[in-house]
Amino acid sequence: MKIYWTKINKIVEETSEIKTYFLDCPEDFTWEEGSHTHLGLKGFNAGDKPNRSLVRHMSISTMPYENTIGITTRIREKCSEFKTVLRNLDVGDEVAIFKTHSNVPLKREGKNVYLLSSGVGLATFRPLVLDYLEQADNVKQIHSLNVDSTRDFLFPDIFKTVAEKNFTAEFVDNRKDYYEEVKSLAQDKEGLFYIVGSDEFLVENIEVLQELGIKPEQIMLDKRENQLSNFFKENLTV
């Protein structure tokens, strides 16, 4: 396993609780849309065993052509040890990145794509949307639906409806309206549904979609293949 130590080159306050940490790109570090990485803070590998409280699985919210690795995360006033340390880092400080992988690249199968997310989960979808807006081949359209009770919606410069590109961005501030819209979107029995959020959020969405006839192979999660069985009903194979 290769560990890349790199520096923070910029910190942007996206909303009152959400920050993006922009990291220098190591020379041979590569990734694709929908990628996540493990972010390690100083001291995480100092002892005989890794200090797991100083490591988190994080989505990369930028595309390689942006020449920076973006890590977007919510940091509340009361937070974990990891986020407390992260909150106190500044430009020039070093962090580690390793075990980078994409579970949710953009599928180009000539179908409609629906991006379902909660809160900062939208960060995972930012690169997919940029990739689509740059090159729409073999994707009919993309519809993004995000629910965030804070109403402090993320990336409004990217997540805005562009009719000529067949891209629609929709935000709601409560779960009731959100699931009503999910049910409406699920009328498309051929669509591809990407879901990002808490495990509870994933399970709720999958139940709604499956009840409406959406098959597991149409549902994409930011999870490793060996984790997928934890989210789908036992009588359905993934």
UniProtKB/TrEMBL annotation:
<dbReference type="GO" id="GO:0004324">
    <property type="term" value="F:ferredoxin-NADP+ reductase activity"/>
</dbReference>
<dbReference type="InterPro" id="IPR017938">
    <property type="entry name" value="Riboflavin_synthase-like_b-brl"/>
</dbReference>
<keyword id="KW-0560">Oxidoreductase</keyword>
<dbReference type="InterPro" id="IPR039261">
    <property type="entry name" value="FNR_nucleotide-bd"/>
</dbReference>
<dbReference type="InterPro" id="IPR017927">
    <property type="entry name" value="FAD-bd_FR_type"/>
</dbReference>
<protein>
    <submittedName>
        <fullName>Ferredoxin--NADP+ reductase</fullName>
        <ecNumber>1.18.1.2</ecNumber>
    </submittedName>
</protein>
<feature type="domain" description="FAD-binding FR-type">
    <location>
        <begin position="1"/>
        <end position="107"/>
    </location>
</feature>
